[in-house]
Amino acid sequence: MSTNLHRPSSDPDQQILYGLVGSPGIVIGQVVVISRHPEQTQRHTLPNDQVAAELLRFQEAVARVENELIALRSQFSTDLAEALSILDSHLLMVRDTVILDGTLTLIKQKRINAEWALSRILAEIRDKFEHIRDPYIKDRFSDIQYVVSRIFNQLSGRQEDLLGALDEPVIVVSDDFSPEDTIRMPAKNILGFLTEKGGITSHTSIVARSLDLPAVVGLEKVTSRCVTGDTVILDGFSGRVYLSPTLDQQTQYLEYKRQHRVFSDELAGYIHRTSETVDGLQVRLSANIEVLEELKTVQKYGAEGIGLFRSEFDFFQYKDPPDEQQLYKHYSEVLVRLAPAPVTIRTLDVGGDKFASRLTGSDLHFECERNPALGLRSIRFSLKKPDLLKMQLRAMLRASVHGRLRILLPMISSFDELRKVRKMLSNIMEDLDAAGIAFEQNVEVGIMIEVPSAVVMADTLAAEADFFSIGTNDLIQYSLAIDRANEYVAHMYEPLHPAVLRLIKQTVDAGHNQGIEVAICGEMAGDVVTAPVLLGLGVDELSMRPSAIPHVKRLLRHSCSRQLQEIGRQVLKCADGVDVRNLLTRYLPTYYPEEFGNQCRNVTS
Ligand code: PEP
Ligand code: MG
Asked: Which of the four, 43, 406, 443, 452, has the lowest number of CB atoms within 10 Å?
């Protein structure tokens, strides 16, 4: 977003709800509230002779839900792989023994009605999920709740026709939505989504982003705070929702929205232009992705390749971990779609806080660690599970014939780790050769520079690595000793700390001295304030969320290498992050008057 855009101010008396940004955008409209609270049900004790009929009633309801889901599945086109896989997981849930047998046993043992038994089982499952810290897994409870709510509807004979019946454009409000909901909703009549549940990885957010509809999720009690027919402002940039806004606020927001449209249209003009400075210095602007569904946006925003494919999502978005053949298919698809542009696939980066709870109880499980951020994370984890790493590398190598693959190893902290993976790769290559399976012999193998030891040893590592990619999210965490997920020290997490900038510079120099490219794939790469600094430090590639590419490209195309180098030189002399920001407050408006105007709000905020 342009640094000159003006966001409307909020009135303290106004009823405002604060949630999480599920999908960006602004919309003003009337809401339709769809509330599902399956657990609000009554307990009835059954006479002995009615228990068998109750068991049958429950089994029949489940069978009807299963048939509904199968019918819905057949309506999805096969290119909606994400939605299909979610539906498959719902089908598995409706057949799940914890839910089915658990409910049947309760009906039998306690002689209670099916609704009450089912609500008890749901409450037990919820208790278990409450102890889960991983937000991705926590979000999956909403799937279980959704499937259970369908069984409730069948038991009570209620039909969910509200969503399908939307006949004018509205903002839909609910506890949460599933992919099935979204297929039933007439997309042309949906302005946006508001949900109580969910986070940025919840299905509502994923689906809303892929439909390009604004969404705010995680809004406490939103289903009871508004009533169908109320007007709201949904600000999908800040995560704010204004209930019954004044006309003045609506006018301000309409103006804000208009400015955004103008700005996005202007940025769209950069999508097909080359990524270079006015004096011809080329810098590759590539995309970070987590799931295959994002490939559409990668192409839409003109990415010149994938700088980071976080492969761990592939392992954890389905019930069972994928096998080599599934990985091969996914990797091949990305490579084919992007060819001949480079695709950088990172090996599994789990442990620490990432997908930690997903590992619990699984084949991938390790004991709880006292200090997980400094524990068995990333490449350390993979090297402890050589079969898993081998499978992933084999899948990558087999896919390498379909495009330009670059393999990326996360969180390398010693030369030995790189050497071990290299050795494993050459063994796999020998096996593939022996089996007559084609692969790219000269596939590039790069490492992520995320810990200070890798920076210190960058010259040595550069001799064995084909490229460096600096993961600034972690490099900041490990160099400043600031847990990136800890809100108590969040104010100290300073990407522009000169220590971080010097580490980046040292890495760039070490890489260039050995003739290898150095990329940045942390959040800093997609921020228009930090990007000029990174460019000034000499990086060759910036990899970011796809929608940020046009904005960074506009900045790059207004840059001149002499000025960037000047910024790079000056920031290295600063004593702390505040000095760097003050310096940028002087430089950026001078070098980029259009972007930063007379004030440099993004820099100082
Ligand atoms: C990083 O650490 O900067 C990075 C890109 O990796 P992740 O955010 O996945 O840890
Ligand atoms: Mg990282």
From this structure: 43
Atom of ligand 1 at shortest distance to CA of 411? 2
Is 272 among the catalytic positions? no
Give the ligand at the shortest distance from the Cα of 344. Answer: 1
497 a catalytic residue: no
Where does a domain end: 386, 416, 447?
A: 447
Ligand 1 center–CA 447 separation, angstroms: 12
With a cut of 60, say whether residue 13 has pLDDT above it: no
Distance 348 CA to ligand 2 centre (A): 11
Q: The CATH number of the domain where 334 resides is what? A: 3.20.20.60
Domain boundary among 423, 447, 471: 447
pLDDT (mean) for 500-512: 98
The contacts of residue 193 (CB under 8 Å, 6+ apart) are 22, 23, 171, 172, 173, 174, 177, 204, 208, 213, 214, 215, 216, 217
> In this structure, are 530 and 405 located in the same domain?
no
Residue 306 included in any domain? no
Ligand 1 pocket, Cβ-based, cut-off 6 angstroms: 308, 310, 349, 450, 471-474, 521-522
224 and 336 in one domain? no
Q: Which residues surround ligand 2, an ion (CB under 5 A)?
A: 471, 474
Whole-angstrom Cα distance, residue 478 to residue 171?
Answer: 42
Is 188 found in the same domain as 141?
Answer: no
Q: Which residue has the higher pLDDT, 5 or 472?
A: 472
pLDDT of residue 301: 92
474-499 pLDDT tens trace? 999 999 999 876 667 878 889 999 99
Atom of ligand 1 nearest to the CA of 471: 3
Cα distance between residue 138 and residue 217, in whole Å: 14
- Ligand index nearest the alpha carbon of residue 469: 1
pLDDT tops 80 at residue 584: yes
334 shares its domain with 401: yes
Percentage helix, strand, coil for the chain under 3-state DSSP, each rounded to 5 = 50, 15, 35
Q: Is it the case that residue 307 has pLDDT exceeding 90? A: yes
Element (H, E) at 20: strand 20-23
Phi/psi of residue 98, each to 5°?
Answer: -60, -45
Range of the domain at 190: 12-36+162-246
Number of domains the chain contains: 4
Residues 327 and 406 in one domain: yes
146, 360, 499, 516 from 386: Cα distances, Å? 37, 19, 35, 28
Site to substitute for ligand 1 among 313, 518, 521, most atoms within 8 A of C-beta: 521
